[in-house]
Design brief:
Blueprint (H helix, E strand, L loop, with lengths): L4 H8 L9 H18 L5 H8 L7 H11 L3 H18 L4 H8 L1
Length: 104
């Protein structure tokens, strides 16, 4: 989501409640995951899409390839786990409070 969007909405609609949807949250999470992938020196384009893909939708071959990628960096593995935890939060019917607890 564009950074200035909340300010514009608040200026025009001061009583509006701003909700950022799943797509935009996961977009930011995946972008950060991609930055870490590059920082740890993994530049294979295919690895980006394996990291972004829903872990539950990976084929056996993709899972094996992803494990090889994650084995190369503890930092990347942890970032991937966080990405999957964020995704899992959206799969469950959680309240805001339950979601916050899950993140912590």
């Amino acid at each position: 989501m564009w950074g200035g969007f909340p300010k514009v909405v608040q200026a025009v609609f001061p009583n509006a409640v701003i909700v950022i949807d799943r797509f935009h949250v996961m977009k930011v999470v995946n972008e950060e995951l991609n930055k870490i992938r590059k920082q740890v020196g993994i530049f294979d384009r295919r690895s980006k899409f394996l990291l972004w893909k829903n872990g539950l939708d990976l084929t056996q071959e993709e899972t094996q390839k992803l494990e090889e990628i994650l084995h190369r960096s503890k930092r990347l593995r942890r970032a991937y786990q966080w990405k999957e935890e964020f995704r899992a939060i959206y799969e469950k019917l959680l309240t805001v409070e339950e979601g916050k607890e899950q993140i912590e």
